């Protein structure tokens, strides 16, 4: 499958999100034109203004798709693009699920994903590659008691089963994980059924927890995206932290590296047909607190940073979940940010925002 031409136009759905804004930025910096899909004009305007200030007024445009679940929602916007990055999907754990079917999550996650692929089958004569943002949530098995290294061969079969069994009593995290698993499976199934009809192929990026500075429209701590909110709560806020939380395994990746992975996935021919885990590595929360406290001067001087239980880091650390990085190294070869680099950039970002 030919790769996307330099200077080609890339469609990015969920373009105003945390990871997507960085992806759009890197695409523009590398000479692509971008059409960002957002749900409302104000979200598009934020993006246009942001990228115009960086000199990309001509190269960036936005289009509104109010409801990604609607049949044919993407039919028009895919028409003249060379590649698609499908990133729109709900990501939070506060799901109230009165019907017990997780529809608020499953519909946009699954139908949104299959919908953009359907539109690409019908209308996207120029598209060479479609990249879908899945997650390590569709790879891992939750609730392990012994460490395991996961690879792209693994699927999270447990969360969809759990949600099916528990219905409205399912924990929010399980619903989110199930939504990612089902959406990714649906994407591969759809692609495999239609690949003889299309001139594009599919690549999937599977990141674990994503941290790092934000450039999307966040006006308050309350509107932080889910992963960065968790990071703030542990590393910055003075809320009490239990030993259990501080020891929790956090496989992670910097948001800028995640975005780069999405861009490389349209540039590297060998990424076609692959799901690719993109991770910096595994950690426990205490290591993030230690990293923050190792920075001198403190990049967020308005706060006395959390200290946690530093003795935890001096003992042997157990990472219950880690990921095989060999496919990413072979196909994309990203030089990932370290915990200290990501921590510094994130705290500096919070300081700029006056948090
Ligand atoms: P954000 O919440 O910042 O962005 C989510 C994007 O998806 C926003 O543009 C949002 O639009 C859009 N979206 C959410 N729900 C819907 C819906 N029902 N219909 C249409 N659009 C919707 O999250 P992230 O940037 O963190 O996540 C982006 C992608 O990356 C998601 O697919 C997520 O599952 C995946 N991911 C994230 C990880 C992380 O740690 N952050 C880890 C692994 C995967 P709007 O602003 O209008 O709500």
Automatic annotation (TrEMBL):
The keyword Endoplasmic reticulum does not apply. GO terms for biological process: methylation. Residues 10-273 form the NAD-dependent epimerase/dehydratase domain. Keywords: Oxidoreductase. PROSITE patterns: N6_MTASE (PS00092). One of its GO terms (molecular function) is oxidoreductase activity, acting on the CH-OH group of donors, NAD or NADP as acceptor. The keyword Heme does not apply. PANTHER family: NAD DEPENDENT EPIMERASE/DEHYDRATASE, STEROL-4-ALPHA-CARBOXYLATE 3-DEHYDROGENASE, DECARBOXYLATING. Belongs to the NAD(P)-dependent epimerase/dehydratase family. Dihydroflavonol-4-reductase subfamily. This is NAD-dependent epimerase/dehydratase domain-containing protein.
